[in-house]
Write a structure and sequence with these properties.
This protein is mainly α. The chain is built from three helices and no strands. The protein is flat and about 55 Å long.
Length: about 100
């Protein structure tokens, strides 16, 4: 059996997702996700709560007590968000470098 194909997990009931391989579950989840997004006309509204929570995180980071003026807090939060994104980019580049070094004999 290859790495891509594994034995089905015992489900005890003979029905549902428990009897599927991880690859089958992954395919079914991808199908469901695409079907769900295909039925979503307003993508921004669907993700608004998550986006707001993500952005609010940086405002709490720079002003935990909420004492700064809104304009100042927003400017500081923007810089905190940019720093976070740059850190993610640096970690991604480092991971790509490591993978490149592992692939080279």
């Amino acid at each position: 059996m290859s790495d891509r194909e594994t034995k089905p997990q015992p489900d005890g009931q003979g029905r549902g997702e428990a009897g599927m391989t991880p690859q089958q579950r992954r395919r079914r989840a991808r199908i469901a996700a695409h079907a769900s997004w295909a039925n979503t006309a307003d993508r921004a509204a669907r993700t608004a709560a998550g986006t707001k929570a993500f952005l609010d995180r940086f405002e709490r980071q720079v002003d935990p007590e909420g004492v700064l003026p809104e304009e100042t807090r927003a400017a500081m939060a923007k810089h905190a968000r940019t720093a976070y994104m740059l850190q993610l980019a640096e970690r991604s580049a480092a991971a790509r470098r490591r993978r490149g070094q592992q692939a080279t004999p």
